[in-house]
Amino acid sequence: MASNQLDSASSNRICNHMNKDHQDAINKYVIHYGGIKEFKEASMISINTKFMELKVDNNVIQINFEHELLDSRDAHQTLVSMMKSIPNNEGRE
Protein backbone atom coordinates (compact mmCIF):
# COMPACT_ATOMS: atom_id res chain seq x y z
CA MET A 1 0.00 0.00 0.00
CA ALA A 2 1.22 3.51 -0.76
CA SER A 3 2.51 5.49 2.19
CA ASN A 4 0.49 8.52 1.14
CA GLN A 5 -2.90 6.80 0.95
CA LEU A 6 -6.10 8.65 0.17
CA ASP A 7 -7.79 8.54 3.58
CA SER A 8 -10.28 10.91 5.22
CA ALA A 9 -7.50 13.20 6.48
CA SER A 10 -6.11 13.45 2.94
CA SER A 11 -9.61 14.08 1.59
CA ASN A 12 -10.11 16.93 4.06
CA ARG A 13 -6.71 18.43 3.23
CA ILE A 14 -7.32 18.26 -0.54
CA CYS A 15 -10.84 19.68 -0.25
CA ASN A 16 -9.69 22.55 1.98
CA HIS A 17 -6.86 23.37 -0.44
CA MET A 18 -9.11 23.23 -3.49
CA ASN A 19 -11.82 25.36 -1.89
CA LYS A 20 -9.31 27.95 -0.67
CA ASP A 21 -6.95 28.17 -3.65
CA HIS A 22 -8.64 26.67 -6.72
CA GLN A 23 -12.26 27.83 -6.87
CA ASP A 24 -11.88 28.33 -10.63
CA ALA A 25 -11.03 24.64 -11.05
CA ILE A 26 -14.01 23.53 -8.95
CA ASN A 27 -16.32 25.71 -11.04
CA LYS A 28 -14.93 24.22 -14.24
CA TYR A 29 -15.36 20.66 -12.89
CA VAL A 30 -19.03 21.47 -12.18
CA ILE A 31 -19.58 22.89 -15.66
CA HIS A 32 -17.56 20.40 -17.71
CA TYR A 33 -17.86 17.11 -15.81
CA GLY A 34 -21.07 17.82 -13.92
CA GLY A 35 -22.92 19.36 -16.86
CA ILE A 36 -24.27 22.20 -14.72
CA LYS A 37 -24.00 25.54 -16.50
CA GLU A 38 -25.73 27.83 -14.01
CA PHE A 39 -25.10 27.84 -10.27
CA LYS A 40 -24.31 30.31 -7.51
CA GLU A 41 -21.61 28.47 -5.58
CA ALA A 42 -19.71 25.22 -5.58
CA SER A 43 -17.26 23.52 -3.24
CA MET A 44 -15.43 20.22 -3.02
CA ILE A 45 -16.74 18.26 -0.04
CA SER A 46 -14.97 14.90 -0.41
CA ILE A 47 -12.63 12.89 -2.57
CA ASN A 48 -11.91 9.17 -2.52
CA THR A 49 -10.25 6.70 -4.85
CA LYS A 50 -13.25 6.49 -7.19
CA PHE A 51 -14.87 9.95 -7.30
CA MET A 52 -15.09 13.45 -5.91
CA GLU A 53 -18.21 15.00 -4.45
CA LEU A 54 -18.99 18.63 -5.07
CA LYS A 55 -21.68 20.67 -3.37
CA VAL A 56 -23.36 22.82 -6.00
CA ASP A 57 -25.80 25.25 -4.44
CA ASN A 58 -27.95 22.88 -2.33
CA ASN A 59 -27.16 19.69 -4.26
CA VAL A 60 -24.31 17.21 -4.10
CA ILE A 61 -22.93 15.82 -7.35
CA GLN A 62 -20.48 13.00 -7.87
CA ILE A 63 -17.78 13.12 -10.53
CA ASN A 64 -16.19 9.75 -11.22
CA PHE A 65 -12.52 9.38 -12.05
CA GLU A 66 -11.36 7.48 -15.14
CA HIS A 67 -9.23 5.22 -12.96
CA GLU A 68 -9.09 4.29 -9.30
CA LEU A 69 -6.74 6.66 -7.51
CA LEU A 70 -3.77 5.15 -5.71
CA ASP A 71 -2.99 7.90 -3.21
CA SER A 72 -3.06 11.66 -2.66
CA ARG A 73 -0.28 12.20 -5.20
CA ASP A 74 -2.36 10.40 -7.82
CA ALA A 75 -5.35 12.52 -6.74
CA HIS A 76 -3.34 15.70 -7.33
CA GLN A 77 -2.09 14.54 -10.73
CA THR A 78 -5.59 13.44 -11.75
CA LEU A 79 -7.25 16.71 -10.69
CA VAL A 80 -4.62 18.70 -12.59
CA SER A 81 -5.03 16.48 -15.66
CA MET A 82 -8.81 16.83 -15.53
CA MET A 83 -8.47 20.60 -15.33
CA LYS A 84 -6.04 20.69 -18.27
CA SER A 85 -8.42 18.65 -20.42
CA ILE A 86 -11.17 21.28 -20.10
CA PRO A 87 -11.23 23.71 -23.05
CA ASN A 88 -9.99 27.20 -22.09
CA ASN A 89 -13.22 28.84 -23.20
CA GLU A 90 -15.37 26.60 -20.99
CA GLY A 91 -16.00 28.31 -17.69
CA ARG A 92 -18.05 30.88 -15.91
CA GLU A 93 -18.85 34.09 -17.67
List the helices and strands and how they pair.
Layout: H1 8-21, H2 23-32, E1 42-47, E2 51-56, E3 59-64, H3 72-84
Antiparallel strand pairs: 1-2, 2-3
Q: Percent helix among the residues?
A: 25-40%
Q: Could you say which overall geometry the principal axes of the C-alpha atoms support?
A: globular
CATH top level of the domain at 8-68 is Alpha Beta
Compressed to H and E, one letter per element, the order equals HHEEEH
- For the biggest β-sheet, the strand order reads 1-2-3
The CATH H-level homologous superfamily of the domain at 8-68: PNP-oxidase-like
Q: Largest beta sheet, briefly?
A: 3 strands, antiparallel
The helix count comes to 3
* CATH architecture descriptor name of the domain at 8-68: Alpha-Beta Barrel
* Proportion of residues in extended strands: 15-25%
Radius of gyration over alpha carbons?
13 Å
Provide the low-confidence segments as ranges: none
How many distinct beta strands? 3
At the third CATH level, what is the topology name of the domain at 8-68? Split barrel-like
Mean pLDDT: 92
**Alpha carbon gap, first and last residue:** 43 Å
Structure classification:
alpha+beta
Provide structural commentary.
The protein has about 90 residues and is α+β, with helices and mostly antiparallel strands. It has a domain at about 10-70: PNP-oxidase-like (Split barrel-like, Alpha-Beta Barrel), CATH 3.20.180.10. It contains three helices and three strands. It has a three-stranded antiparallel sheet. The longest helix has 14 residues, at about 10-20. It is globular and about 35 Å long. The N and C termini lie far apart (about 45 Å). The relative contact order is 0.21. The mean pLDDT is about 90.
